[in-house]
Amino acid sequence: MALSLAYTLIFTTDNIETSRRIFEVEIFTPEECVSIIASAASAASSSASLGLGSSSPKIRGWSQSRHDLYPTVDLNVADDHVWPHFAHLKELLDERLSPAIEAAYGVPRASLRAQDIFIVRYDAIDTIDAIEDGNSNSNSNNGQDHLIQHTDGAFISFNVLLNADFSGGGTRFVDRRSGSSVTAHPRKVGNGLLHRAKVLHEGLSISRGSRYVLVGFIELDTSRYDSGASTGLSVYSSYLSLGWLESWSGHLYTAMKMKMKQENRKQENGQQQQQQQQQQQQQQQQVHWFKRSLIKDLQLFAYLAADALGKFPKEVTFVDWRKWARREEFDEKAKELGEAEYFLGQYLLMDETGRYSKKIIKVHEIHETDSPHAS
User: Fold this and answer.
1) Which class for 282: exposed (0-12), middle (13-18), buried (19 or more C-beta within 10 A)?
2) What is the pLDDT of residue 131?
């Protein structure tokens, strides 16, 4: 009986079928992609005029330092000075990306929250300027032509192809167990790839032109951060989902670590504290460290178990979300529960209690983690 219950709870569709699959979906029209790229050029120009971003002529105004471990040449579409150029994206993502994720993963759109949304730019690097170090991601003068193998700090990742006038490129997904891989090239401009963020992947080099991709990191919330209202996310897609547990515990571990750093700073600044207070703090730190260790162990278990149970695909699965059998049902849920948080969401930070609060901070601080597979 116990084994049967455990099997039912662990060997779910979420943990087996969708855990490592890669989906392709239609998001934008080619005309909309042209408009988004034009908006990116305008936003980069605005950044440059404010003295922000790179000063290199080819990528002036684009950022190269928002992500610490795996930096990309990109624009955060939610930055205050950039957002006006991309205001139209909200409606498009609500109309198309939300139902596409619903169809692929069976989760309500009200539970979706973007931890980060940005436009990545890859540029072919001239031979004379090429970097000889094979592990390097970019050229300080010419930008970046690829991104090495990595995973993302979220639950679901998406990337939408915005142009086709380049050579090479594509996204390669790697099975950590066998070393086998699948290289994905969207069928057409405007199509996007959806995958669990912890699937190992890389952006392949381009040899000609520039490649533009809209990238997003999505979390799934069980309740709204402001009202506490339910998002309709089922227990199978949250607490019984290995991927969700890995992402949630990763953020919680980071929050607890940041809290400990703050407490240590307070202790260092309080030179005249009494002995009793110091002993109490030491006891609290020991308890805190024990809790952090448990959370870290949970994160590692979920990560390894998801790799062990998930079926790595041999090809990309195309999902026609417009013809999904349950689309009307989920459209009705959206009317009751609300839409996704695509832009406000990336300004939410988890605290040491596991709750989210609205804080205006740098995106790379949100993704700070000690995990060996961090983004």
Assistant:
1) exposed
2) 40
